Amino acid sequence: MFPPRLKRNQIVLAVFLILSVGVLTLHWRLGTDSFFNQTQRVVVGLTGPLQSGFSKITRPFKNGLRYVREMGSLRRDNTRMKGEVTKLREEVISLREAKRENKRLKQLAGFKEDKYTTLAARIIGNSPNNWQATVVIDKGSAEGVALRMPVVSGEGLVGQISKVSSHVSEVQLILDQKSGVGAQIQKRGEKGIIQGDLDKEPKLNFISKDSRVKKGEAVITSGLGGIFPKGILIGFTSEVKLAPYSMYKEIKVTPIVKFSRLEEVLVITNPQPKIPWKKE
Amino acid sequence: MSPFSFGILLLLVSFILDVVLAPHFRVMGVQPDLVLLFVVCYALVEDSLVGSAIGFFGGLLEDLASTGVVGLNAFTKTLVGYLSGLLDHRVSKWMFFPLVVVFIATIFNELAFEGLLFLLGEGVPFTKAFFRIVLPVAIYNSLLAPLVYSLIKRIFLRESQVPSFRLDEKAFKLKEK
């Protein structure tokens, strides 16, 4: 019925499709410690040095471009920031006093102070496809990085470690659609979950429709879930809507971290978390 | 060198470029899918047999370089490679041929990928995904298509000078057109 060549091609197509479905099913069923995950780690480990080398070459050009682009706004920012510095100095003095008082009271009440050890890492690569929001960093298990460790920057929360190789790791950003972070509105204490949404602005889910949350309120990690320590700044609410037929509000959050400009991050390698780190 | 092993060699190059270079050239939040671009263009120059094989291995490599489920890209790119290889070479002289084929192939690939994600329970809002990812990637890929297609065609014709029955036959057909 078919010319022999066409039939042969169809058989080959069927074989490859069956193989794909087989691999897909196996990986789906075997979970995180399967052969496929180990191979994924090896591939990340192999491509890491290439990404690192390329980002080293392009960094001076990128920095130069950024400098030229931002030159116009530097003077304006400088004037504005001078005014802010005066205000902040006064605030720092009162906060130092509050911190001392807080420490004294914690000691009196027998509270243990949370201290986090961090490891600085440089971003050497980005997500290899458009459906994931991840970055690759130049530190791995050899430097003490483990799966699910929280990653922050000087500004706020970045994400968590999603894959670890010996000298390279992958960080799942809070923008990733599979990412979920326990969060709370700082001012009101109302808790929800920050979830990625194929967007530059993740959603803050599970905030009751009766909440009085407004645009511009700070959102921090709630500490629930045992992965992220409490109190790390995530961002500010940028859109608050009442969804019809829903028990919850539709809230969008503008992350404090500018992910497109991110170059260095800190991995929190706290040795005594509430839930033990899952080791690969 | 056989068309398949030659294709695998070029596929590795496009995969490395996809992982190392493409993320630095994001426009509107998306980067081009260089592996898909290569699979489609190579299948157009070759046939559906080589297209499906190159598609499978290209997709598998992409899956292994990601955090997602292994097999998703392998499945969609096998199909795309096969279908692209079925296209008649006689229309390949049309100036916009690679551009249109790559545009349609990317839309097909991304929608198939989205469909599989949905079946695995990881579905994303369709309209949002279409306008944020599928359409921009299709435009980006198709803009690069004429360059990649002409490059592959040129390399392929040069490679076909090596004595090999299938390649000689192919080169003869291309020259004939």
Please count the beta strands of chain A (DSSP E, at least 2 residues each): 12
CATH topology-level name of the largest domain in chain A: Thrombin, subunit H
Structural class by helix and strand composition of chain B: mainly alpha
The end-to-end span of chain A amounts to 53 Å
* Integer average pLDDT of chain A: 84
For the biggest sheet of chain B, the summary is: none
CATH superfamily of the largest domain in chain A: Rod shape-determining protein MreC, domain 1
Helicity of chain A, as a percent range: 25-40%
Structure annotation, total helices of chain A:
2
Strand order of the largest sheet of chain A: 1-2-5-4-3-12
User: Terminal Cα separation of chain B, in Å?
Assistant: 24 Å
Q: Any idea what the shape of chain A is?
A: globular
Helicity range of chain B:
over 70%
SS summary, helix count of chain B: 7
How does the major sheet of chain A shape up? Answer: 6 strands, antiparallel, barrel
Task: Please explain how this structure is put together.
The complex is a heterodimer of chains A (280) and B (177). Chain A is α+β, with helices and mostly antiparallel strands. Chain A has helices spanning 4-30, 35-109; strands at residues 118-126, 134-137, 150-152, 157-164, 169-173, 180-185, 191-195, 203-205, 218-221, 233-242, 249-255, 264-268. Chain A has a 6-stranded antiparallel barrel. A 6-stranded antiparallel barrel of chain A has the order 6-7-8-11-10-9. The longest helix of chain A is centred in the N-terminal third of the chain and has 75 residues, at 35-109. Chain A starts with a helix and ends in a 12-residue tail after the last strand. By secondary structure, chain B is mainly alpha-helical. Chain B is 74% helix and 0% strand. Chain B has helices at residues 3-20, 34-45, 48-64, 72-86, 97-119, 126-159, 165-176. Chain B starts with a helix and ends with a helix. Mean pLDDT of chain B is 84; it is low at 162-169. At the A-B interface, helix 1 and helix 2 of A face helix 1, helix 3, helix 4, helix 5 and helix 6 of B.
